[in-house]
Design goal:
Elements lengths: L5 H15 L3 H8 L3 H9 L6 H11 L3 H5 L3 E8 L5 E3 L7 E4 L8 E6 L13 E5 L13 E6 L4 E8 L6 E4 L6 E4 L1 E11 L5
Parallel strand pairs: 1-4
Antiparallel strand pairs: 1-2, 1-3, 4-5, 5-10, 6-7, 6-10, 7-8, 8-9
Helix pairs in contact: 2-3, 2-4
């Protein structure tokens, strides 16, 4: 997996700062990160973390993909046993993967771990989803989605109706269903890049 082109990231940040008439101090305040972190990003850091880049993109009011380049998307987490998504929590550096062909918009990627999701997904497959999180889960009944539950936890499962109108069941090929849960948001799988294609 590729790392981001830090020189391109820096040039984009500086260009957007100029466009918005922002100093480093103003960008720090707008993004919620320290001035030292902004300085390091613009002068020192070779591989900034996804959390930092997300905050800077939000502070500049631009999509993350504008900072990291349109040919790649951030790998933000892993999905494994039971279909639960483990998002990258640290800021040690963002891994980048190729953008799916003809894909547009704010896209993020998840990597499949282990074999618990066979035969649908294999270990090493990259799953692409929209970074926009759709609150209206009803639209995605019957689709494989990244699904955030109201009580916490994000899963990669097929969305099915629950027993009550405002509840849903999350279906899996190799694990038990998660039944009658409230869904905060659901966003469908847009593309799968098999490990053998990378």
């Amino acid at each position: 997996m590729a790392e981001i082109d830090i020189q391109n990231v820096r040039a984009t940040i500086v260009r957007e700062m100029q466009r918005h008439g922002m100093s480093r101090r103003k960008l720090s305040a707008a993004s919620g990160i320290g001035e030292t972190a902004i300085r390091d990003l613009l002068e020192r850091t070779a591989n900034p973390g996804i959390a930092t880049l997300n905050k800077v993109a939000a502070g500049l009011d631009v999509p993350l993909e504008m900072l990291i380049g349109s040919g790649q998307v951030p790998l933000v987490g892993k999905v494994g046993a039971g279909g639960e998504v483990a998002y990258q929590e640290d800021d040690d550096g963002v891994e980048m993967v190729a953008r799916p062909p003809n894909a547009v918009g704010d896209i993020i990627a998840l990597e499949v771990l282990g074999e618990s999701m066979l035969p649908k997904y294999e270990a090493g497959d990259i799953i692409y989803i929209s970074q926009s999180r759709f609150a209206e889960a009803q639209k995605h009944i019957g689709e494989y989605c990244a699904i955030r539950l109201r009580q916490g936890g994000t899963y990669l499962k097929m969305l099915a109706p629950g027993r009550e109108p405002s509840r849903f069941t999350l279906r899996s090929l190799n694990a038990g269903d998660i039944e009658d849960v409230e869904v905060e948001w659901a966003t469908p799988v847009l593309f799968i890049m098999p490990r053998r294609s990378r």
